[in-house]
Amino acid sequence: MVRTSVLAGLLAALLCGTAAQAAEERGPVTNLPLPRYVSLKTGEGNARRGPSLTHRIDWVYKRRDMPLEITAEYGHWRRVRDKDGVGGWIHYALLSGVRTVLIEEDMLELHQRPDPATPVEAKLAIGVIAHLEHCEKDWCELSAGGYAGWAPKTAVWGVGPDEILE
Q1: What are 84-129's pLDDT values in tens digits?
Q2: Three-state DSSP class for 109?
Q3: What does the alpha-carbon distance between residue 91 and residue 77 come to, in Å, rounded to a whole number?
Q4: Which pLDDT score, from 0 to 100, does residue 23 have?
Q5: What is d(CA 35, CA 20) in angstroms, rounded to the nearest whole number?
Q6: Would you say 72 and 78 are in contact if contact means Cβ atoms under 8 Å apart?
Q7: What confidence score (pLDDT) does residue 142 get?
Q8: Label partner for 124 (CA 20 to 30 A): which of 10, 13, 60, 105?
Q9: CA distances from residue 11 to 8, 19, 119 in whole angstroms, order as listed
């Protein structure tokens, strides 16, 4: 009986602290926040089942600048996932801190300012990779194909919902 109540108390404490703990989690190698977004530096990157060259390749990313989310670190390896939730372990040399996003809304309008009433500078097709310049609470400034403008944060993948970038 005592054992059960102690375990229940520990479980409750863990569950209550999960959100705060997740917000403060840092990578053991880089001391950078986890999870965090990066991009693929090369035109091809192998996602492996584990953090070494001896592990099987599960996935091959073929798009340079593809946004990826780092969820874990081990030595020179980073566990990543894409917008579909698939991924694996990639060597850190294949990743870049340059921020990009994947457009998730077809013909996404880029506005002059973070306001839907301002003129449209360009429209981006679904699946386009855009460079992330700045983010406010609800809007991000993007650039792609020589065009730049502001889009709603909810229309892209590769930036956290509460993330602010200056």
Answers
A1: 999 999 999 999 999 999 999 999 999 999 999 999 999 999 999 9
A2: strand
A3: 5
A4: 54
A5: 13
A6: yes
A7: 98
A8: 60
A9: 5, 14, 52
**Token pair for residue 152?**
């709603």
The domains found in the chain, sorted by start residue, are: 25-98 (2.30.30.40), 101-157 (2.30.30.40)
The residue ranges of the chain whose pLDDT is under 70 are 1-23
Do residues 90 and 49 lie in contact, with contact meaning Cβ atoms separated by under 8 Å?
A: no
Other Cβ atoms within 10 Å of 42 Cβ, number: 15
What is this structure's pTM? 0.84
For the chain, the straight-line distance linking the first and the last C-alpha, in angstroms and rounded, comes to 54
Tokens of 58: 């599960």
What the block records as the tokens of 11 is: 């479980």
3 state DSSP class of 87: strand
Distance CA 59, CA 78 (A): 14
Residue type, 105: E
Q: Which residues pair with 40 in a beta bridge?
A: 95
97: three-class secondary structure by DSSP: coil
8 Å CB contact between 93 and 108: no
